[in-house]
TrEMBL record, chain A:
Keyword Nucleus part of the UniProt annotation: yes
Gene name, Swiss-Prot/TrEMBL: LOC111361768
Name of the featured protein: Integrator complex subunit 10
Keyword Nucleus: yes
Family: Belongs to the Integrator subunit 10 family.
Keywords of the record: Nucleus
Family matches, as InterPro entries: Int_cplx_su10 (IPR026164)
Subcellular location: Nucleus
Organism phylogeny: Eukaryota, Metazoa, Ecdysozoa, Arthropoda, Hexapoda
UniProt-listed Pfam families: INT10
Major subcellular location class: nucleus
GO biological process: snRNA processing
Gene Ontology, cellular component aspect: integrator complex
Automatic annotation (TrEMBL), chain B:
InterPro entries: INTS15
A Pfam match: INTS15
Lineage summary: Eukaryota, Metazoa, Ecdysozoa, Arthropoda, Hexapoda
Organism: Spodoptera litura (Asian cotton leafworm)
The encoding gene: LOC111358958
Name of the protein in its database record: Uncharacterized protein C7orf26
Superkingdom classification of source: Eukaryota
């Protein structure tokens, strides 16, 4: 045993004896420490050595006791900070380290002091927040409101999403109430902001029920402010129509906070759902047919169809509600300005403008020439009856058609007389179907009653067949009445079996009266020969039959390609329509 | 029922049935709302003598043979059954003290010793608790108590060393017994106040079990004091003496008495059973083998720490200290001084004598922790004065300085 320096102070002498004994026998060392602790109960050095000794020996219970007694004196705290921070770190990691086990063996009062001290002394705001969460999790029942307050008022805290996540996702659910409504509002805004950003973050997936959680925060606030519990109940918000109708009743209340927070949440959620459903669909003006009975689902004088129509309408109506008077509009703008992600700024604004018929706003800028812009221009120009511009846009879109084939849209035309908007998928078939439908309308609307206009309509209606069956029947009537139909592009573009059949039927049935001048080589005989004069000209009859057979043989060809080819080739014709 | 009727009815039974019946009758006589009269006590003693221990015949004359060894065992069995079935602590202790509370009978003490030893074997808590009360009422340092304890030690710590686990668990099941048992045991070893040659060390097995008891149960040493015995009404409870002072003696003096561990008789390690028990995993087997047994010195160090922890638990929340008698601690001084004299006589230096310094350090540690926790009763000034007479030791200086300031 080395000589122990007699120059040492009494405390140091005993510590030295303990440390020396520790090399040989832990029990002996502990006996020294125990003695030292009773001799110098207020001596930090001794208490801390005793603690270290227990820690080194892995004695959870004893170390907890030593640490607890160290913690009892406030003046020890500065010296204990490194250890306190080590404990806090240990608590955050999942594995049951010595320090976290030790922490569990410490009485709650001191646990709280440890956590509070570590919160108070962490310089790093992030660290600060993590510790706060730790504190809240361990002591949800304690007076943590003021700590939340301190934190949320920290400048940095409010602008870093990682903090927000800690606060919103982990801390808010632990809060049962907050005495300050102002602070609570800040928290709600932060929560709205966080979840609104979260849902659009492609890298984060761990929170499975963000909206439900957000409703939990609204609930906290609603209980504080005495709101109608209907609005803060998550499941109520699932029925969008009912929820919106109920929101409408808040329109004129003096305290706009309920409408502001619940409405914003509802708006953001509807918008998010709309955006995630919408994908590659674009909102276009579509058609309605007064001769068909309107759908029962429709309410009001505007119908929106297509993939995310309900979600879009909920968002759009709610957006409108949030701008329905100066007060709510001002408050909403204030709130919206605080959100980091503004999902309405892209796409929704234009869709909303179109929805409200504000065509100038909805019209894409002239410099933008992509497919979407072209389709939107087609849509708007058509409804403004700028047919030339519309057709120019169609022609501009044709070379940009997507590769995805897609299918026909059954809802391009709905029954009724009202305005109809549709979410059109960005697929080749859907877009061409839309174009063909519009071109047929343009041909009708321009009052062009030439055979060539009718013939073009026959061509165009093939893609959406039998969507335009009514028009087809009208054209057939016209042909019957006129008794003659000149359309030399027939063999190039008409291949649909139904149309071919109907025409053959007319030709057979009324062979005498109807002259179908539809073969390209018959042009020279125009006016000289008439097909179907009582077998007088069998050669002509044969020609017709052969031509029809040839067209039927082509009926498996892609109508889509025929359409593209047709519109491109006949551009000059279409352009002069306007 | 008159005495003669009572005796008459008991005489219908042969031994051991009469003993069994007698116990019930004694219970009826002694246990009631009020303290039994002297006459009732006399009758009870008479019945015990005649029908339980068969010490006298019908005419109260001496019976020549008494009980045969086999009958001793039959009787012990009956008493055991009776005590175990007894639901009331006071009743049990009343009967037990009536049976064995006399000072004179060696025969009864012999039976009691066997009974106690059997209770230890069987871990019979009710019997052990009764024995604990008996030890306390007789005085742990009385010759009867020491005789009983010696008997238990002989049976369980010399002859049989395979029952440590069962023994260790007694501290939890019958702490008052264990506490009083240790108090008595400390009287048997290293109890060398006069510096005579009576300085033998306890057997290692006993040391090991006591260390385990004290080390793992810091409140054990106080348990006899904290749980007052349920005594028959009218009897005078004897103060329980904690084993702490005795254990402090042991731990302090051990360095002086232990022959160096190197020269300590090397124990032939008992080979571990090679037979693998059903369900016993290899790992536990290896673990058992690899845990290094402590040396005797190491046991004392561990026991010493256990005692310090017990002293911490000895602080009373109210009332004067009761754990350690100052005089008892002061009694260490002459023993240590005589050792120191021998060191000097051999030409050694006190400062360099590690054994002596270890001893002084432990005395210092014990006294300090005891004083700091308010465990010491009696004349503390005298204790400090006695410490002041001890050979030079820095810890003792610090302690004396500290406490002289406060007195």
């Amino acid at each position: 045993m080395p000589a122990i320096d007699s120059a040492l102070s009494d405390e140091d002498y005993i510590i030295a004896k303990a440390k020396d004994a520790q090399k040989y026998n832990i029990h002996s060392a502990k006996a020294w420490m125990l003695t030292a602790k009773t001799l110098f109960p207020a001596n930090f050095k001794i208490q801390f050595e005793a603690y270290l000794m227990e820690k080194q020996s892995g004695n959870v219970q004893e170390a907890a006791e030593c640490f607890s007694s160290l913690m009892k004196s406030r003046q020890n705290l500065p010296s204990l900070l490194p250890e306190i921070s080590a404990i806090a770190n240990a608590l955050r990691s999942s594995e049951g380290s010595f320090l976290s086990q030790m922490f569990d063996n410490i009485c709650p009062d001191i646990q709280l002091t440890i956590l509070k001290t570590s919160v108070e002394n962490s310089d790093d705001t992030m660290e600060h927040c993590r510790l706060l969460v730790l504190l809240l999790k361990k002591f949800p029942q304690l007076g943590v409101d003021s700590l939340v307050k301190t934190l949320i008022n920290a400048e940095k805290f409010f602008y870093d999403n990682r903090y927000a996540r800690l606060l919103v996702v982990e801390t808010l659910p632990l809060l049962s109430s907050l005495e300050s409504p102002r602070l609570l509002q800040r928290l709600v805004i932060k929560a709205i902001d966080f979840y609104n950003s979260y849902v659009y973050d492609e890298n984060e997936h761990d929170i499975t029920d963000p909206w439900q959680r957000l409703f939990g925060v609204l609930d906290l606030m609603g209980r504080q402010l005495g709101w109608d519990s209907f609005f803060v109940n998550y499941s109520n918000s699932l029925n969008k129509e009912t929820y919106f109708q109920k929101l409408l009743t808040l329109r004129n209340s003096e305290d706009c906070r309920q409408l502001l927070y619940c409405g914003t949440t509802f708006f953001l959620r509807s918008l998010y759902e709309h955006k995630s459903l919408k994908g590659n669909h674009i909102l276009v003006e579509a058609l309605s047919d007064p001769e068909v009975a309107p759908s029962k689902r429709r309410k009001g004088d505007l119908e929106v169809t297509g993939i995310s129509s309900h979600q879009f309408q909920a968002a759009a109506n709610c957006w409108e509600l949030l701008h329905s008077n100066d007060l709510i509009s001002r408050e909403f703008t204030k709130l919206a300005n605080q959100l980091q992600t503004k999902p309405w700024s892209e796409g929704f604004a234009d869709e909303f403008a179109l929805y409200r018929g504000k065509y100038e706003e909805a019209m894409p800028q002239a410099t933008v020439t992509n497919l979407t812009a072209c389709v939107v221009r087609v849509s708007i120009n058509y409804f403004q009856k700028n047919y030339t511009a519309c057709i120019e846009s169609i022609l501009a879109a044709l070379p940009q058609l997507p590769n995805v084939e897609g299918i026909l849209e059954p809802e391009l035309i709905v029954g009724g007389k009202h305005r109809h908007l549709h979410f059109l998928p960005l697929t080749k078939v859907a877009i061409m179907h839309y174009f063909c439908t519009l071109l047929i309308r343009i041909l009708l609307n321009t009052g062009n009653t030439t055979d060539i206009a009718y013939g073009h309509m026959l061509v165009l209606m093939q893609l959406g067949w039998p969507q335009e069956e009514a028009i087809f029947i009208r054209i057939l009537d016209v042909i019957r009445q006129k008794g003659v139909f000149h359309y030399h592009l027939f063999t190039s573009y008409i291949i649909h079996i139904d149309i071919l059949e109907e025409l053959s039927f007319i030709w057979n049935e009324q062979g005498n009266n109807v002259v179908l001048d539809i073969l390209p080589n018959s042009q020279q005989h125009l006016g000289q020969r008439r097909i179907g004069t009582r077998g007088a000209d069998k050669g002509v009859k044969e020609d017709f039959k052969q031509a029809m057979k040839a067209q039927v043989a082509r009926s498996n060809e892609s109508v889509l390609n025929v359409m593209i080819h047709f519109i491109t080739s006949e551009r000059a014709f279409f352009l002069q329509l306007g | 029922m008159s005495v003669s009727d009572l005796k008459h009815s008991l005489r219908k039974y042969e031994f051991p049935a009469c003993a069994k019946e007698a116990l019930n009758r004694i219970e009826q006589l002694l246990v009631g709302r009020a303290a039994p009269s002297n006459k009732q006590l006399d009758i009870a003693m008479d019945i015990i003598s005649e029908f339980v221990f068969c010490e006298s015949d019908r005419r109260s004359g001496r019976r020549s043979g008494g009980l045969t060894p086999l009958q001793d065992l039959q009787l012990i069995d009956i008493i055991c059954d009776y005590l175990s079935a007894c639901t009331n602590e006071t009743t049990k202790n009343t009967i037990f003290l009536s049976l064995f509370g006399g000072m004179e009978s060696q025969r009864r003490l012999k039976i009691l010793s066997i009974l106690a030893s059997m209770a230890v074997s069987a871990s019979s808590t009710p019997v052990l608790l009764a024995v604990g009360v008996w030890l306390q009422q007789m005085g742990c340092s009385s010759s009867q108590s020491l005789q009983l304890v010696e008997n238990v030690i002989r049976d369980h710590f010399y002859l049989n060393t395979s029952n440590q686990l069962a023994l260790k668990s007694l501290a939890n099941t019958a702490p008052q017994f264990v506490s009083n048992f240790i108090t008595a045991v400390t009287e048997l070893y290293m109890h060398d106040a006069q510096g005579t040659n009576d300085n033998k060390l306890p057997p290692k097995n006993l040391l090991e079990v006591i260390t385990a008891w004290v080390y793992s149960n810091p409140t054990l040493c106080m348990s006899a004091q904290l749980n007052p015995a349920a005594l028959p009404s009218g009897s005078i409870p004897m103060a329980a003496v904690t084993p702490l002072a005795g254990l402090i003696h042991w731990c302090a003096l051990a360095p002086l008495y232990i022959v160096d561990d190197d020269t300590e008789m090397v124990e032939v390690p008992v080979p571990f059973k090679k037979i693998k028990l059903e369900g016993e995993s290899d790992r536990s087997l290896i673990k058992t083998v690899t845990s290094k047994p402590l040396t005797e010195s190491e046991f004392y160090i561990k026991l010493h720490l256990g005692v310090l922890h017990s002293l911490r638990a000895g602080r009373r929340t109210h009332g004067p200290p009761t754990a350690v008698n100052a005089q008892h601690l002061a009694a260490l001084a002459p023993v240590v001084q005589s050792y120191a004299h021998n060191v000097l006589k051999r030409g050694g230096k006190i400062q360099n004598d590690h054994k002596l310094q270890d001893c002084l350090d432990r005395i210092g540690q014990s006294v300090q922790v005891a004083l700091a926790n308010g465990c010491v009763y009696g004349n503390i000034s005298n204790l400090l004065a006695a410490l002041d007479t001890l050979p030079e030791n820095r810890l003792l200086r610090i302690i004396i300085k500290t406490h002289q300031q406060t007195i």
